[in-house]
């Protein structure tokens, strides 16, 4: 029960941040950054329709279609997030200041707030409806990739906004907002890259592994690998270190085997000994 309450608090915080980004930056500056909110922004200036209620009206058929095509899997959190965002956008619009009329600042800071808000909402298993739901529905008809469909839907909204506002500059600012929002959503859900994963293929994997254990005080895992061209079997070392140890590990590998093949990858979250503790996600 406590986990459910915690999740609804998280979804509520995300919805509030999203509404602030829309009301203080994006909507007043005619930045229609894709999605249902972008369509609602265009209709607000073209037909005078309130943004929040337009968002709700557009989401209702999406939810009904989603239930029909995908079943009852969206949950109450999704319905709650969609309705509360629509209501908050209209309620707060007359009480919040417009912090800037500079389109670049509005597109960046609006993207930051909406990205943080949507990232929180998604992290706590909620949604605000919109194009992510539309893309999931379209995928059941076309079988296309959801990410590609999201890009296509958002691109069409931005194109329509550029035509409606007779300004391709506003359309380009909207693209900046989409980029910032997407980046922040990923950042909130995955975290910043604070660790690095090394995959090390070497004839001296044993020596490298022992040096990692003794000199860096990090663990090393040997994975069995086989070269498809040569057919030779070798150990592939997997080593995860923090950013301050990246250069030390590179030097260590080079010193022991200058011909080693090394793959370095970003790691957004590491759970277990030496890093963050592994805990159960609240449900």
UniProtKB/TrEMBL annotation:
This protein's record includes keyword Mitochondrion: no
Record GO cellular component, one term: plasma membrane
Pfam family, one: DUF2179
Keyword terms, alphabetized: Cell membrane, Membrane, Transmembrane, Transmembrane helix
Residue ranges crossing the lipid bilayer per the database entry: 5-27, 47-67, 79-98, 104-122, 143-164, 170-188
Entry's localization field: Cell membrane
Main localization category: membrane
UniProt domain DUF2179: residue ranges: 218-272
Membrane topology category: Multi-pass membrane protein
Protein name: DUF2179 domain-containing protein
Organismal lineage: Bacteria, Bacillati, Bacillota, Clostridia, Eubacteriales
């Amino acid at each position: 029960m406590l986990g459910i309450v915690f999740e609804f608090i998280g979804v509520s915080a995300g919805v509030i941040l999203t509404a602030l980004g829309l009301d203080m930056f994006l909507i007043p500056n005619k930045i229609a950054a894709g999605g249902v909110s972008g369509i609602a922004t265009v209709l607000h200036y073209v037909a005078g329709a309130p943004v929040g209620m337009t968002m709700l009206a557009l989401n209702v058929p999406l939810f009904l279609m989603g239930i029909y095509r995908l079943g009852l899997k969206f949950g109450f959190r999704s319905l709650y997030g969609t309705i509360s965002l629509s209501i908050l956008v209209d309620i707060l619009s007359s009480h919040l200041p417009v912090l800037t009329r500079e389109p670049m600042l509005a597109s960046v800071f609006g993207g930051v707030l909406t990205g943080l808000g949507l990232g929180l909402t998604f992290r706590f298993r909620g949604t605000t409806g919109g194009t992510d739901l539309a893309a999931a529905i379209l995928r059941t008809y076309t079988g296309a990739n959801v990410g590609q469909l999201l890009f296509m839907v958002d691109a069409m909204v931005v194109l329509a906004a550029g035509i409606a506002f007779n300004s391709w500059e506003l359309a380009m600012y909207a693209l900046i907002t989409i980029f910032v929002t997407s980046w922040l959503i990923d950042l909130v859900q995955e975290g910043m890259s604070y660790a690095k994963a090394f995959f090390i293929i070497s004839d001296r994997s044993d020596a490298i592994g022992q040096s990692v254990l003794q000199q860096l005080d990090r663990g090393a895992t040997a994975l069995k690998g086989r070269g498809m061209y040569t057919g030779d079997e070798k150990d592939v070392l997997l080593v995860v270190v923090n950013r301050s140890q990246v250069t030390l590990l590179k030097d260590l590998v080079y010193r022991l085997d200058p011909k080693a093949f090394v793959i370095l990858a970003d790691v957004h979250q590491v759970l277990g000994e030496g890093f963050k503790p592994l805990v159960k996600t609240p449900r």
